[in-house]
Amino acid sequence: MTQPKQILLLDETKIDRTITRISHEIVERFPELENIAIIGIRTRGEFIARRIAEIVKSITGNEIPIGFVNVTFHRDDFRERLIQPQVKGTDIPFSIDGLAIILADDVLYTGRTIRAALSEIINFGRPSAVTLAVLVDRGHREMPIKADFVGKNIPTGDAQHVYVRMKEVDGIDGVYLVTYDEE
Length: 183
Known about the structure:
The chain has one domain (12-156): 3-Layer(aba) Sandwich (Rossmann fold), CATH 3.40.50.2020. Helix content is 27%, strand content 28%. It has 4 helices and 8 strands. The protein has helices spanning 12-29, 44-60, 112-122, 167-170; strands at 5-10, 36-41, 66-69, 100-108, 129-137, 149-153, 160-165, 174-179. The strands form 2 sheets. A 5-stranded parallel β-sheet has the order 3-2-4-5-6. Helix 2 (44-60) links the parallel strand 2 (36-41) and strand 3 (66-69). The longest helix is centred in the first third of the chain and has 18 residues, at 12-29.
């Protein structure tokens, strides 16, 4: 079996620039920051959410509430996964009732993770709206889910995967396209 081909699509500088652009788009869409909050999907969406919140604060001087969701047990394919999940709990330390929630994740693919995150968020209350911010949209949707803020669209084939690495958990920032040999 040959090694998969790996291409670096976004390095640290490009990721920083992309998250900064998304943050500016959020500020433009929600000029009244009092009624918004950001919730990151664990694991890498958590760090994207943190970075967006920091940049929004540097742009506006306003802090926005930040929380995190774990979608492990809300996924419809939970029983099909053979690995034991490493579970970090959901942490939403504020009322979401009436807030416009910005849900943040690293890669949007089938839409199943986002559907699971919405299920978890609804357990905490009734937001006025939920928008989606993703670093990468790779297509191949199986659910009617669309991102409102997209860092980069990366169309992929069936034998390709997009891997996001973040300093906080991986020691390096990078977005990689990996192509596996089809056999």
